[in-house]
Amino acid sequence: MEKEKKYQNVVELTNDWVWEVDEKITFTHLTESISDLLGYKPDEVRGKTPFDFMVPEEAKRIEAVIRPIMEARKNYTFMESRFIHKNGHEVITEASGNPMFDETGRFTGYRGIVRDITDRKHAEEQLKKREEELREQTIRLEEVNQALKTLLKHRDENKKELENKILSNINELVLPYIVKLKETKLDAYQQVYVEIIETNLNDILSPFLLKITSKYLSFTPKEIQVATLIKEGKGTKEIARLMKVGKGAVDLHRHHIRNKLGLNNKKVNLRSYLSSLS
């Protein structure tokens, strides 16, 4: 009797629903907590089974799980089930139970506890849904990324193909005539201009001009011309003569070139640096 009284005191302190069923799984005892859990008073539930408060599909599923356990007189823990509240909404619960026996050892039913885990399950479902959405977004991003890589690859291939065509045309359709032109009678200035044209065409075929026009887009045509002549080893006086400008203009171009290359205030030879770009 004293033991039973202590048990009852503990039961009254918990917010979970404590219950007892007989061997036919009919409720014989319930705590008041069932009102908070399912909206029913204990008298409305006593004499009925748990399955009476579930949708048919859930009742069939739970009965198929619980009957073998009861027949084997085993304990069970954390059994998840879904009840229908008196007002119609679903309540997700987690139950644990132990078999009961009388003084003679005869099986008399089960006693257990039910806890409301609706909020937790909804949170888990939302998290699972969010994880699935993120997984789908990741897959879509990977597909987009792969498509972009394919497009960039095709663009690079097309760019390379165009570059190769240009270089091939220069080699086959332009340079041979430059060579023939040099074999004709040219005066000194004409000879220099032909050499400049040939040099510039060769630069197009080399990485030098590509680098200074792509990396340093602010280079003016005159600065590109001066840079090319400097790389060839021409001095300021000779460059001025070839370009028909004053030495001051060439010096100014040299200053701008060094500035755009980030070489001002550095002890770096401009010709050596330009040659390193080839």
If you had to describe this structure to a student in words, what would you say it looks like?
With 278 residues, this protein is of the alpha+beta class. It folds into 3 domains: 2-116, PAS domain (Beta-Lactamase, 2-Layer Sandwich), CATH 3.30.450; 119-169; 185-276, Arc Repressor Mutant, subunit A (Orthogonal Bundle). Helices cover 61% and strands 14% of the residues. It is built from 11 helices and 5 strands. Strands 2-1-5-4-3 form a 5-stranded antiparallel β-sheet, with helices on both faces. Strand 1 and strand 2 form a beta hairpin. Helix 5 (118-182) packs antiparallel against helix 6 (188-205), helix 8 packs across helix 10 and helix 8 crosses helix 11. It is rod-shaped, with a radius of gyration of 45 Å. The protein starts with a helix and ends with a helix.
Topology of helices and strands:
Blueprint: H1 2-13, E1 17-21, E2 27-30, H2 33-38, H3 42-45, H4 56-71, E3 76-84, E4 90-101, E5 107-116, H5 118-182, H6 188-205, H7 207-215, H8 221-231, H9 236-243, H10 247-260, H11 270-276
Antiparallel strand pairs: 1-2, 1-5, 3-4, 4-5
Helix pairs in contact: 5-6, 6-7, 8-10, 8-11, 9-10
How many distinct helices? 11
Helix and strand succession? HEEHHHEEEHHHHHHH
Tally of discrete structural domains: 3
CATH fold descriptor of the largest domain: Beta-Lactamase
Overall pLDDT metric: 85
Strand order of the biggest β-sheet: 2-1-5-4-3
Give the fraction of residues assigned to helices.
Answer: 55-70%
Text of the CATH class of the largest domain: Alpha Beta
How large is the share of residues in beta strands?
A: 5-15%
CATH superfamily of the largest domain: PAS domain
CATH architecture name of the largest domain = 2-Layer Sandwich
Cα-based radius of gyration, to the nearest Å: 45 Å
Question: Helices and strands: which structural class?
Answer: alpha+beta
Shape: rod-shaped
The count of DSSP E runs of length 2 or more, i.e. the number of strands, is 5
Q: What separation lies between the terminal Cα atoms?
A: 101 Å
